[in-house]
User: Fold these one by one.
Assistant:
Number 1:
Amino acid sequence: MKWIPTALVLAAAALLPLLGGDFYVNLASQILVAVLMAASLNLLVGYAGLTSLGQAAFLGVAAYTCAWTGVKLGVSPVVAAGLACLMTLAVSALFGAIALRASGLGFLMITLAMSQVVWGLAYRLVAISNGDNGISGIVRPSPLGLSLDSPGAFYWFTLLVVVLALWFIAILVRSSFGATLAGTRDQPQRMAALGHNVWLIRFAAFMISGFLAGIAGLLFVWYNKYIHPSALSMTASAEALLAVIAGGSGTLAGPVVGAAVVVLLKNYASAYVERWNMMLGFVFLLIVLFLPEGIVPGVKRLLGRGR
Amino acid sequence: MQISRRTLLQGTAGLAVAAPASVRAADGEPIRIGLLTVKTGPLASGGIDMEVGMAMYLKERNNMLAGRPVQLIVADTGGVPATARVKTQELVEKNNVHVLVGPLAAFEALAIDDYITEKQIPTLSVAAAEDMTQRHPNKWFVRATSTSAQCAHPMGEYCAKVLGYKKMITIADDIAFGQEMTAGFQRVFEDNGGKIVQKLFPPLTAPDYGTYVAQVKSDADAIFLGFAGSNGFRFLRQFNEYGLMDKVKPIGGMTALDEAVLRNMGDEALGIITTCWYSAALDNPQNKHFAPAFRAQTGYDPGFYAAGTYTNAEILDVALQSIGGKAEDKVALMAALRATKTDTVRGPVRFDDLGNVVGNVYIRKVERIDGRLMNAIIKTYPDVSQFWTYPPKEFLANPVYSRDFPPAKNL
């Protein structure tokens, strides 16, 4: 009966457009994009033990590839999405090959440096990216001839994609691959001694993580219909990491909760609180002090103690 | 409809008599104005001035425009395009605003470009992005301030013809605004016989201008500063420390020596010539009221953002009056906005077919007036359009101003 809470959450999520106004539906779409972003990063941070500060680079590569091919080369949204996926995979492979020479702090610094390179290119390669003006005029795809222009339709589409992605992650981390990945996180030397190729396992996880972030990038650019270098800045990467850590890394529900908290604080609470940046910091401080393992595991622990 | 505590405070503070909300509602549905501004991050000083300017105008009219009460809802975009879009959606979908004022930055305006078209929301912005009223015009957009280059064009002519400069350098923040402004300056300056011998583009967040100051070719007559925010001030201070002020004269674009930064400067700013569509020292009835009132409230002179937003409020007021306050009729309101011809704090304004302002551009010189630095007017270019003296068709056939257009032949 463990599936009942999940089913209830899904049913509630699916019914949202029928109940809420456009604003809340759009807010929920943004939360879903942030959830996918955080979940992709969680694969690295939580399951592979590799803390990356460059996840927004993959979102950016996918978003810019989709925008550039769609707007400037005029290909259809579906083809643009395909090209964006290929491009993200290529960039993930390149970044993974470089960054996985290190682990721990070294890995974090290399991912940060490489994402800054991508961010710098988005600013400077004006011929492709339009620089600071960004690329606008992006068209949403219409799968099976259904238009995604209304907030509700886009939300349902996003929900479907994100749920499939989360399902995929859930299967992945419970598979034998997930077990070996957790092994490389906890005991890399023993895993190597047992004959596992630690580097290759990590590289595969990095590629999958980058690819999922790329999917989040596609949803992001279709949602906004506009892309600007700020979307792949360090702040964006840090926000995703914050969502993972706040929600609880290494759990399936953690990034979902964490991303929802970050987006709601940033985009919703900011309308009511003048110094919302300060409030954001304060909330995270409280999480670190009282739920250091993250919201999801922390709340579970507190509930368990109460019994 | 949800009303935030902050909105409510602003609404009631605006009323001379603090009437309870229920009494105001009886006057009829208010006109809801959404102000997209920046209150956190590096652009916040200008954004806060926007809010002060807007709130001041409404307060002076007891929160009534065209006989209807007004509700102002302020949203902070943080200067981030994606957040600007979120906040716009919030204002439109949750607060049901009739009209938007703002946003501040060009990339924010571009980020909401398609959305305001889709939702048909009349938008009065101070963002300078050239193509919003040129090659990709948005029919729901009016701009009462200027494009990036609109004030730089007359300055190009002034430098070549009046000041007699032959060789000049341009330096600007490496963002679209800086690139477009210096490109416009270069075009007119070179068309009047001058030569741009060097173009420098430091990053927007350059911590130190030493490496750029050291590159400046000291045999040039003058250097045109296309900086925004506090960067012009920071550059000038280093430029002065290097002892270059007397060799290469600094000339300012429309935001380089804005009133907002001038108040932090000393005698090194005296005599610097800049160009803008406004100055706190302007002598017209509207500004004679506005500038001292703003100063009394904040303790400093109004600059680009405060005056720009106040001008937008004046134009919105006139347009609303001409349609009897029916802000719900968006098509009529938009037509009325574009047809507006009125006298504002910046002087007389009207709009061209693309929704951009045709108005005065002032050449100003920093002087000490009443013990403080002010931009005194030394020449007025009347009724300047975004195309300067070029035929619009020919102007629009060219690519948009950038680092590479017009090409620099004299580097």
Number 2:
Amino acid sequence: MEKEKNKYSIIVPTYNERLNIALLVYLIFKHLKDVDFEIIVVDDGSPDGTQEVVKQLQKLYGEDRILLRARPRKLGLGTAYIHGLKHASGNFVVIMDADLSHHPKYLPSFIRKQIETGANIVTGTRYVRGGGVHGWNLMRKLTSRGANVLAQTLLWPGVSDLTGSFRLYQRSVLEDVINSCVSKGYVFQMEMIVRASRKGCHIAEVPITFVDRVYGSSKLGGSEIVEYLKGLAYLLVTT
Amino acid sequence: MKQIIKILSILIAIAAFWIGLLESSVVPRSNTWLLPIYLIVSLGCYGLLMVGVGLMKFPTCPQEAGLLQKDVAEAKEFLKQRGIDVASD
């Protein structure tokens, strides 16, 4: 019973996600019934009362299942994972977004895939059969495809979805990779998977669907594109 | 080996092959001179083709939006019963 021994620490960085975090926690508990897991919420000082909601959830589900590890202010995504990782007690770590674009119903397939393949990393991919995206306009799709073709041609990363951030890591692998990553934002996700791939990690993929921001909309402007290209160049010369 | 070195090595190998062709004149020189332009054009075409195909085959999941709405409603109902205040403002 390999499944019994494993513990999964789910790290969720939040900023102003009081509603979403409650929905997310409910859905995680709904879909992970026979699994030992903990949820680590790394909140960057949200002014909207995210932390109060998390405290209420702790009373409901138990303080050993939901850990609130807040930071005083917005300090960036990469350091949020490092911060959460310090408090993680599982041998596997899941990283996901709080805004429900990553649906907890896929967690069992991540876990199953890891057990089947023994992979170091299981990454969610939107670009294969069974995966997909909802809520993107043509411009967003075009940018995404262009970015993907560019990265696949230049970096040969061995994974189909570089900027997706719904992933399951072996804890030791994540600790190893995360400290060598310096990028910010979603370039950070790309750097993580490329560095892991270069280190010879076994990376498996599972299809996920990505429904864009139920509340609010995501934007992709010129500055993000510039950041992406800089990130690509950085990875070209350093990995 | 850094990725940039791998890519540069490939480019240098291609360049060396091209210079070899120029020097040996197996094919007429005027044709050989055009090869780099063909290469750049075909790389561009490859990129555009991949983006185009990717766009046409872009997997979408409109049904998921509905399913998510259902899950959200279910979660809200549960949280309301447990007295967790998540009224959106």
